[in-house]
Write a structure and sequence with these properties.
It contains seven helices and three strands. By secondary structure, it is mainly alpha-helical. A three-stranded antiparallel sheet has the order 1-2-3, sandwiched between helices. The radius of gyration is 18 Å and the shape is globular.
Length: 203
């Protein structure tokens, strides 16, 4: 099954429960290729990807992700929760461990194009570029009937994850997504209408 672009975007959901069925390596290659075809400021291509399929590493990665979500819901959020509420939130993420593949999307500034005085602007370009790469990856996966979820919470466990995956010091984790066949069918979440967010000629 291969969907068109708009169909893929509309079909995409944040998938938290996966079937353990293996994902064909050609499908993995295709979503990674899509990621590398994303636009980037000054063609800096500030990304690298770690594909995790080893069962032991996947298990440890899933444990770290669970711990990151515990910290996110229980400490980091303004509306932090505890007790049964925290357990209920975390229960939604227990299915991540079933995914046969994890892709760790990294911000790796391999090509510097701006002078030091302008580096904050260049860093923003690199962050946006990696975001575009991850979006390409997610939409390509959707077109193939594969589930993903953009997880930013791994940053709350970045030190442990970098050690697990052998990431260099100058590499930052931009996001993690499982990749696999969905074992759930979440409903679409509400979006602000175009009339509310689109401005014509002036704000």
């Amino acid at each position: 099954m291969v969907m068109g672009v708009m169909e893929s975007i509309r079909w995409r959901r944040s998938i938290r429960r996966y079937r353990p069925d293996p994902v064909d390596q050609e499908a993995v290659r295709l979503v990674l290729e899509a990621a590398t075809l994303a636009p980037s400021g000054q063609n800096a291509q500030p990304w690298d990807f770690v594909v995790v399929t080893d069962p032991g590493t996947r298990f440890k990665l899933a444990e770290f992700l669970f711990g990151a979500h515990r910290k996110y819901f229980g400490e980091a959020r303004v509306d932090a929760v505890a007790g049964a509420d925290l357990d209920a939130r975390l229960n939604r993420y227990t299915g991540l461990a079933q995914a046969p593949v994890f892709i760790v999307v990294c911000l790796h500034r391999k090509r510097r194009v701006m002078k030091q005085d302008y580096d904050a602007d260049a860093y923003l370009w690199d962050v946006l570029s990696v975001g575009a790469a991850m979006e390409n990856l997610i939409i390509a996966a959707s077109s193939l009937g594969l589930g993903t979820i953009w997880l930013g919470t791994p940053n709350l466990q970045e030190g442990s994850l970098k050690e697990l995956l052998g990431l260099p010091e100058d590499v930052k984790i931009a996001g993690v997504t499982p990749l696999g066949y969905p074992d759930e069918s979440p409903k679409s979440r509400p979006r602000d209408p175009l009339e509310q967010v689109v401005h014509r000629d002036r704000w």
